[in-house]
Amino acid sequence: MRIAIVVGHDEANQGAYSATLREFEHQFNTPLSVGVVRDLKERGAVAQTFHRPAGVGYSTAMAALTSEINAWGADLVVSLHFNSMGDTSWAGCCALHWPSSVRGNLAAAAISEAVAEAVGNRNRGAIAQADSWSGAPLYILKDTAAPAVIVESFFGSNPEDATKGGAARDSGALAAAIAGAAYGIVASW
Ligand SMILES: [Zn+2]
Q1: Which residues have their alpha-adjacent CB atom under 5 A from ion ligand 1?
Q2: Domain extents for the chain?
Q3: Per residue in 146-186, pLDDT tens?
Q4: Centroid of ligand 1 to alpha carbon of 18 (angstroms)
Q5: What's the CATH fold of domain 2-185?
Q6: Which residues of the chain have pLDDT under 50?
């Protein structure tokens, strides 16, 4: 079993900033990816962290990243993010998948459920999505040969949700939830 863990965004463009956590997505998810990979290896899976190259355009970076993952040969791809909204009342976790991907849907549902339990927030579940809010294609879902999931574990913009997410990251519970759900769903295929 081979599971690719992707740290969302990149070194130069780190994604959303959480004022509560005082971290950007890329900063927050880099140590999380280490924990997820470690947990997956302990379960007997082959796992590796992937970063997109920094300093190039989005489509160029994603073409390089998805090519690298496809050459590596993943059974499942999990990209780590947190959500953010101007309206700070939004809270909960969800996992995005390519609309026509049946296995992507199953993986997203399993991972979102596990993450909500670990973080202690509302499970918004699996969401089929082809484009980001800005209208750009979600290449990690579209161009990976394996089923892929974007995990939005909590809203960094919501102080209570972000505090719960940070605690779950720091305790190792968030990594264990993502790894356990990813391992379990691939084992069932
Ligand atoms: Zn993100």
Answers
A1: 8, 15, 25, 81
A2: 2-185
A3: 999 999 999 999 999 999 999 999 999 999 999 999 999 99
A4: 11
A5: Aminopeptidase (3.40.630)
A6: none
